[in-house]
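Service request form, structural biology core

Requester: graduate student, group of Dr. S.
Request type: structure prediction, single chain
Budget code: on file
Notes: please return the result as structure tokens.

Sequence provided:
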Amino acid sequence: MSPLVSVIVLNYDKRQYTDKCLRSVVETTHRPLEVVLVDNGSTDGSVEMIPEWRQALEASGVDLKTHLNEENVGAPAGRNQGMKLAEGDYVAWMDNDVIVKDRDWVDQLRARLDADEDLGIVSPKLLFPPPDERIEFAGCAVTPRGRVVYVGRGRDKDDPEVNVERDTQCLISACVLLPRRAIEAAGEMDEAFFPVQYEDIDYCYRLKSLGFRCRIVPSVEMYHYEHITTDGSEDIKFLEVTTKNGLLFRRRWRHVFENEGGPPDDAYRWENLDRPRL
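Core staff response, request fulfilled:
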């Protein structure tokens, strides 16, 4: 039999995106499949939608588990709660602003993990949703001073330079798949990265310190409404927490990324692209 795969979806308001995300998960071909929905104190009617989401998922053979927080406990704590409920041999982290594009994404990513026991985490290529469909993310690079770069961001989705399967310095948690063996070795996410930002980068570096590798699989494509999970959330001061958590990451892992041969710091440039929204 195929192994159980758990998809942990972290939700904090943004009900219309969560709805689109969960209804797209139904299209995933892999079974058995379970969704673990962790709600971080939503007040926009998301919780009231759970019975409808459960009906849609279970009608397609996907089990739904839920954990409801009374307040926003942050992304690391929310994912840790989800991992305690997840029973799968493989665990996917999926943000509630991700939409399934390739229906066989789980099996393609799982095949990479099964073929190489040193792989601890794999990611599809993330595209901006239609009508854009440019690359949002095709792996992460980290400069010698600790700046995180989204490889390929803003390029054509078929750009041959970035459409190469390869190991990468780290990955973001918008959509990744991990084998149970890697989670058991690395343990929980560090909740010091409250409420969000760099918790996934830190986790990748912890996996690498244990001998695992990170890999981008650009032949697998998913859609991502970039930064929707934090956009407009009044209790998340995005620039402030990015700075704070970035400093923590750099202090912790400087001895590694300074010597990894990442891109030069002057190559780093974040473009404020027009991004599709619902």
